[in-house]
Amino acid sequence: MGFFEFAKVLMVVYNLLILVGGGGLIAVGFWLRLTGDVLGSNALGVFSINAINTIKVDIYFIVVGIIMVLLGFLGCCGAKKESKCLLIMFFSIIVIIFISELTLGMFALAYSTHIKTFLSSWGKPVLQDQYGRDFHFTSLWNMTMTKLDCCGFNNYTDFIGSYYLKHYGEIYHPSCCENTTFICNLENAQNSMIPGCFAWILRSLDERLYILGAVAAGVGGIETGAMFVSLYLFCYLDKDAS
What we know:
Number of strands: 0
Number of helices: 9
Protein name: Tetraspanin
Subcellular location: Lysosome membrane; Membrane
Family: Belongs to the tetraspanin (TM4SF) family.
Membrane topology: Multi-pass membrane protein
Keywords: Glycoprotein, Lysosome, Membrane, Transmembrane, Transmembrane helix
Strand content: under 5%
Shape: rod-shaped
Low-confidence stretches: 37-54
Helix content: over 70%
Radius of gyration: 26 Å
Mean pLDDT: 81
């Protein structure tokens, strides 16, 4: 078997991997869509909801995944039929996808840093002003603190001087105290030192970015190999035709 035949087989293998990679991106997209609230959107209020609605990362992954599945079939057909038209079409599309994935990766990295910086300065003032004042905001935070076993944004000190304590007495949310037998007051909260929800949110974001990065790196490696092989097959057929 000559190198050209080997390249054809390699092209088919790469496209099968692209099919699998596309399926993986679709799965990740639906996973993000189903677990959007686990990213902390319920606890972060309007900012996080607007951010998620603007970026639509889940939709991006699903669409790119579907395109990659179709692209896998296109590449297999181009290699099997030795069609220059299909091969150059395959190469052009996969280059565009590869560049768009790199762009999204850089954007996600920059945006995650922006989120962390923004939230670190934004969380406490908003919590002090809105908790106990806005019913929806208060309900979301109560649910978050109960579910995650966390207290406030950083810790119990976020509530000191807040609207809630001024108008409802010096009583903290039960999640701020380990011992729920007694009233959760300042002394009980100080002794408990329950961590804030911000640490959990950062950990959750980092875990998801790691998963997304690993999937994107694997798919990108497959795409790079497929680009070189498809370009070689096209050049070989073009040279043979001339």
